Amino acid sequence: MQTILAPMEGVIDAEMRALLTSLGGFDRCVTEFVRVTEQRLPAKVFLRYAPELEQGGVTPSGVPVYLQLLGGNPRAMAFNAQRVAKLEPAGIDLNFGCPSKTVNRSDGGSILLREPQRVFDIVKAVRDAVDPSIPVTAKIRLGFSNADHLLEIAHNIAVAGANELCIHARTREDRYKPPAYWHLVKPVQRTHCLPITINGEIWSVEDALQARAVSGCTGVMLGRGVLRFPQLAAQLRAYDLGQGFEEFDWFGLQSRITDYLNSTQKRHKYFVGGRAKQWLGFLLRRYPQAGELFHRIKRLRFADEVLAEFDAFAAESKTTGYATVKTGPEPHAMELVKP
Ligand SMILES: Cc1cc2nc3c(=O)[nH]c(=O)nc-3n(C[C@H](O)[C@H](O)[C@H](O)COP(=O)(O)O)c2cc1C
């Protein structure tokens, strides 16, 4: 019952991985993609995306981090993977899912799904280039405009020697539009022996159970659902183990978000403000307090003013009792969707 934290460019950086994995329930993370062209990238580029490589390739709570490469040239992917391998990563993931026009125009991401043979060539080149002890995984969508070649793509990835496959159950044309077509993954799951993880549109434990049941996969990858509800993986793990689960109140959650923001202070002067607004934008769908705080910081730009507003809001929440408001579904609601 593996749970993976999804890679999200511009959102899930090393500091975020540190925070989210500290909450429990995750077995693995994947970095934001590193774009590979013809160049041999220096080690410092990989270390920038995955500073965890200097700490044994794991987050501070010990969760392995796979470094993700994106590119369309098998040879270039192979020699860059070799460089990554020297840094002893927990694993290398290959991105065949990015829908961005810019990325697709430069021969990377989901556009490669139109060429199943090239997907094979890339996976094989990387697999052959690095020591077998380093897992090589692939992340795909159902296809580019439709899912017609899904079985062929998955087959090619399996025979090229990938250790695992994650399928975001939408095509590139679907972008991020709901729903995710979890059921289309079931035939792949039946046909291939490599472990497959299901991804897309999992916002709650109920969704995770449905996605597992409908796709036949035991592993799930969680993306935006974790931004809205940071304890989602921990709640899923507690459910799987039949253990109790306690959700933070807003105050508990806000203090962790503040720790995250503080840990990014060495970045660009607008970084903290940008990330705070971005994350509150996800959280407000579940926590009304996040909406209120978002409103209070939306015009602020500098880290110190944003953090001061966070502190003021926390102090007020404490005295008004607002922080103790519990949100979200009652745990017993999950019993209804047991697979
Ligand atoms: C802002 C953003 C950035 C993303 N960056 C990456 C990335 O760097 N690599 C990747 O493989 N997928 C990336 N994805 C896709 C996610 O990993 C995931 O497949 C997608 O969000 C669907 O899962 P979800 O519905 O649980 O969010 C990104 C998605 C979003 C929304």
UniProtKB/TrEMBL annotation:
One of the Pfam families matching this protein, by short name: Dus
Top EC category: oxidoreductase
Record keywords: Flavoprotein, FMN, NADP, Nucleotide-binding, Oxidoreductase, RNA-binding, tRNA processing, tRNA-binding
Essential cofactor(s): FMN
MF terms (GO), sorted A to Z: flavin adenine dinucleotide binding; FMN binding; tRNA binding; tRNA dihydrouridine synthase activity
Ranges of residues in domain DUS-like FMN-binding: 4-236
EC id: 1.3.1.-
Site label Interacts with tRNA, positions: 35, 95, 176, 275, 277, 298
Reactions that this protein is recorded to catalyse: 5,6-dihydrouridine(16) in tRNA + NAD(+) = uridine(16) in tRNA + NADH + H(+); 5,6-dihydrouridine(16) in tRNA + NADP(+) = uridine(16) in tRNA + NADPH + H(+)
Catalytic residues (UniProt): 98
Family: Belongs to the dus family. Belongs to the Dus family. DusC subfamily.
PANTHER family from the UniProt entry: TRNA-DIHYDROURIDINE SYNTHASE (PTHR11082), TRNA-DIHYDROURIDINE(16) SYNTHASE (PTHR11082:SF26)
Protein name: tRNA-dihydrouridine(16) synthase
Gene expressing this chain: dusC
